[in-house]
Inverse folding.
């Protein structure tokens, strides 16, 4: 009911190529997250799918139907924006109903769908209010409700949590995850926050400079990144990259995640000095300046007392060490 | 903030400057209104004193209302101003929307071209305009004035409004597109209400020169049917004798409609000027 296929989509603004040939397939009911640094083209790709932006070449196919030249309203999609984008002059109820009204849906049907969506998102008490009278979290719920009532083939989310504060972000993230489970609809979600990507996605698409770097499930990307970029982008704190030559390795770069390093006071592979220690309670991040490996981050679960200036030995877990070639790709 | 910077000498200084400016700005207006209620001898004898029971005279107003068709002139002025204002705002906003919303070849060039009129006074083209109006048979019609004033007001309107339209959230317009609203509905229902303060700013800047203009009514529509108030007031300005009572009364009356329109727009105007400065 909601599959999506993107074939060799390219987009250029004048001489600047933003999307350099994207191929992607999304099956019905999947939650796909586009993630990447700002300027990587993820929002542009979403806009091309929505029809708000024409692709320079390539095809967008929704449910087996080529919609490359179909206007946004006829594509069977609904979109939730970063800035909520509610109509300021309409009440919550009319905000949610406008799209259906434009498509000349019978009034009874509109009311029924608004009823379902508003109870799902606990918006009933606010139906007669205008957006200006709502808080940020409520506004974003209305925006999500506006998408839900359309019963689209495809939900598109454009960084919907970026404008919310930290606590509300976690709540709304949970709500979106529940919504997906309940509606079993296909959702495409754009974010630059890898935590949102990891927690929500069935499938993550990592984009960089207009190209897809890797597609895969969250754990797949974490455990077997295809290249240096994905390895560095997924996981927090970031993976340590060490020049292979300094360690006497044949690979160009060696990568170790901070959580795959162990420290010892007396012996280990890399001797280093503690530069800074971050105590987060559940875990401790140590920044070590190592003689062989340079500045690295070590993540220790639980509390670990280390003073800046102290000497420590760090040892990588050989099974979880990644080797990257000169082209950035993982060496098997 | 206001507490921290408040000090007596500073407050007095600021008020002194503002009051001086207010006095200078209002002085000519008050002088005109004051003298319009005086007899001719009163005007010339002591132009700076307010009307006393001895010098009080309504002769100016009775002349204006009695002689010449002043109600009709007012009507002409009002029709010309309101119609021009309407077209300037409508077309200006539409052009501004296109310039700020759509990417097309020559967008910047078109924007510059439309704004060029700010720098080139329309009066330079008076002869050509007159020939055009003669050729199209529009001389001595209000249509001629409305067309000229619309052209005169558009550059500034396009320039100011396109800046404001750029600030309207793209997401909102895109949400409208996804909900199936037409570009016209997006423009009239979503964008226009959000730029209302800037529309008021443009309205005031456009309205006052049109209302006060003497040049084009004199050249394009000097007939009795199409005279505007400013042109009508010239009736009393003779080469040898000038009826000051009537002129002052006519001018005082002419201030009123603009003042009313200004009051209507001013609330929006202040928001327009300060928007962006304060979120």
């Amino acid at each position: 009911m909601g599959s999506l296929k993107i074939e060799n989509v390219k987009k250029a603004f004048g001489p600047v190529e933003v999307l350099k040939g994207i191929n992607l397939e999304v099956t019905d009911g999947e939650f796909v997250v586009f993630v990447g640094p700002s300027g990587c083209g993820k929002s542009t790709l979403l806009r091309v799918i929505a029809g708000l932006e024409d692709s320079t070449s390539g095809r967008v196919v929704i449910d087996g139907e080529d919609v490359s030249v179909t206007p946004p309203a006829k594509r069977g999609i609904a979109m939730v924006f970063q800035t909520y984008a509610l109509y300021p002059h309409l009440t919550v109820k009319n905000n949610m109903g406008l799209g259906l009204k434009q498509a000349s849906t019978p009034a009874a049907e509109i009311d029924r769908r608004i009823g379902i969506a508003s109870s799902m998102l606990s918006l009933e008490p606010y139906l007669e209010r205008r957006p200006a009278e709502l808080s940020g979290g409520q506004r974003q719920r209305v925006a999500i409700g506006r998408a839900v009532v359309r019963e689209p083939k495809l939900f598109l989310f454009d960084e919907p949590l970026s404008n919310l504060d930290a606590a509300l972000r976690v709540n709304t993230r949970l709500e979106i995850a529940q919504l997906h489970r309940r509606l079993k609809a296909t959702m495409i979600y754009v974010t630059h926050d890898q935590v949102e990507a990891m927690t929500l996605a069935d499938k993550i698409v990592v984009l960089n400079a207009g190209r897809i770097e890797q597609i895969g499930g969250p754990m797949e990307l974490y455990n077997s990144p295809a290249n240096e970029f994905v390895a560095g982008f997924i996981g927090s704190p970031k993976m340590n990259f060490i020049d292979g030559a300094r360690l006497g390795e044949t690979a160009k770069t060696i990568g170790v995640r901070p959580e795959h390093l162990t420290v010892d006071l007396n012996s280990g592979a890399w001797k280093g000095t503690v530069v800074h220690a971050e105590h987060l309670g559940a875990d401790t991040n140590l920044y070590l300046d190592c003689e062989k490996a340079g500045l690295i981050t070590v993540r220790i679960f639980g509390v670990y007392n280390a003073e800046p200036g102290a000497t420590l030995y760090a040892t990588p877990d050989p099974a979880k060490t990644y080797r990257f070639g000169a082209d950035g790709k993982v060496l098997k | 903030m206001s507490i921290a910077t408040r000090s007596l000498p500073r407050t007095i200084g600021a008020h002194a400057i503002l009051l001086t400016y207010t006095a200078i700005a209002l002085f000519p207006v008050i002088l005109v209104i004051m003298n319009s209620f005086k007899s001719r001898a009163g005007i010339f004898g002591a132009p700076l004193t307010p009307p006393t029971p001895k010098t009080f005279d309504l002769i100016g107003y009775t002349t204006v209302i009695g002689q010449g068709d002043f109600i009709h002139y007012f009507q002409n002025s009002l029709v010309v101003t309101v119609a021009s204002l309407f077209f300037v705002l409508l077309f200006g906003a539409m052009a501004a929307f296109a310039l700020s919303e759509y990417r097309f070849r020559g967008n910047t060039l078109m924007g510059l071209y439309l704004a060029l009129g700010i720098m080139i006074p329309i009066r330079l083209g008076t002869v050509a305009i007159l020939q055009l109006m003669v050729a199209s048979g529009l001389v001595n019609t209000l249509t001629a004035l409305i067309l000229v004033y619309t052209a005169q007001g558009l550059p500034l309107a396009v320039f100011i409004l396109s800046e404001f339209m750029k600030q309207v959230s793209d997401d909102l317009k895109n949400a409208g597109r996804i909900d199936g609203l037409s570009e016209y509905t997006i423009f009239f229902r979503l964008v226009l209400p959000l730029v209302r303060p800037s529309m008021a700013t443009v309205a005031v800047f456009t309205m006052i020169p049109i209302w006060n203009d003497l040049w084009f009514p004199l050249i394009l529509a000097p007939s009795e049917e199409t005279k505007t108030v400013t042109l009508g007031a010239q009736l009393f300005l003779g080469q040898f004798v000038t009826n000051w009572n009537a002129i002052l009364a006519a001018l005082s009356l002419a201030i009123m409609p603009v003042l009313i329109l200004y009051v209507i727009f001013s609330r929006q105007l202040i928001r327009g000027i300060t928007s962006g400065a304060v979120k």
